[in-house]
């Protein structure tokens, strides 16, 4: 078997692996679409209903036709349309506003330790980070096209960040810290400490407005967890699989694709390191969320 045939076999095997998860991904997609449609406030416009119905139909088609002949020929196009449709859906955006429509609870008491994980989950769902991560992990396409599609999804989603930061939940989470009692006490202590400690980061936090904190926080979550993590994950998985396949098929080491995948493997972390990277991103999000809840900013 020559190199082009060997690589063609690898690409077919890669698509087969992707397709093996499509039924579960499609089922989760349908559930997310139905829940979003049921929880939005107000009546739906006709075009919103038609677009949402088309997304549900596309997800069902991916789930039903997965085992049929010729599925892989149109699967990637359908997945791109589904991901972009999720990212541009007004019903998904209205549902996000509904999720963040109430005030956060008091975060100064011991009960905040129990409330914080639920608040973090609500923020990740409300600012589309969870949805972006799901689309990136569950619906992969080609390596380069996957990065481009995910970048387009992030760009479409982040257009709503201003509206999200105006919701009661995020405005309350990044509330002004002037009240020495109640929720803002810890944040007030932090601001007093930075006045004497001279820590640049704390000085920056003191000068930053609530809206700036919120925008930076949401965008960082969307980029770190919604773009970088799934894109790097699939690049590394594909590079490792390609190198293993090339070694098995005894492809010439001077082959350009083989050299490219070996180069990517050198820069990709191992499986344990990938898991640590995901866990680190989660920890960063958790710390950022806690900072958003207690540091606040100026009006």
TrEMBL record:
Top-level taxon: Eukaryota
Key words, A-Z: Membrane, Transmembrane, Transmembrane helix
Positions of transmembrane segments: 21-38, 44-64, 107-125, 132-157, 273-295
Protein name: Uncharacterized protein
């Amino acid at each position: 078997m020559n190199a082009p045939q060997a690589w063609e076999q690898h690409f077919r095997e890669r698509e087969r692996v992707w397709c093996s998860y499509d039924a579960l991904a499609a089922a989760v997609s349908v559930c997310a679409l139905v829940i979003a449609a049921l929880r939005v406030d107000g009546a739906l416009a006709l075009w919103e209903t038609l677009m949402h119905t088309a997304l549900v139909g596309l997800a069902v088609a991916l789930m039903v036709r997965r085992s049929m002949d010729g599925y892989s020929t149109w699967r990637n196009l359908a997945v791109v349309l589904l991901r972009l449709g999720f990212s541009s859906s007004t019903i998904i955006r209205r549902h996000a506003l509904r999720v963040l429509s109430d005030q956060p609870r008091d975060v100064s008491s011991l009960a905040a330790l129990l409330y914080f994980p639920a608040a973090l989950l609500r923020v990740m769902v409300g600012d589309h980070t969870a949805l972006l991560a799901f689309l990136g992990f569950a619906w992969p396409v080609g390596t380069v096209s996957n990065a481009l599609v995910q970048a387009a999804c992030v760009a479409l989603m982040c257009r709503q960040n201003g509206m999200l930061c105006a919701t009661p939940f995020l405005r309350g989470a990044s509330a002004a810290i002037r009240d020495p009692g109640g929720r803002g006490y810890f944040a007030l202590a932090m601001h007093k400490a930075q006045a004497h400690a001279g820590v640049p980061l704390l000085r920056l936090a003191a000068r930053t407005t609530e809206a700036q904190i919120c925008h930076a926080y949401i965008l960082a979550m969307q980029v770190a967890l919604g773009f970088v993590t799934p894109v790097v994950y699939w690049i590394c998985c594909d590079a490792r699989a390609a190198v293993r396949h090339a070694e098995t098929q005894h492809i010439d080491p001077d082959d350009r694709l083989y050299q490219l995948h070996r180069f990517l493997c050198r820069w990709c972390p191992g499986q344990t390191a990938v898991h640590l990277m995901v866990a680190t991103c989660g920890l960063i999000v958790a710390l950022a969320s806690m900072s958003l809840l207690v540091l606040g900013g100026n009006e």
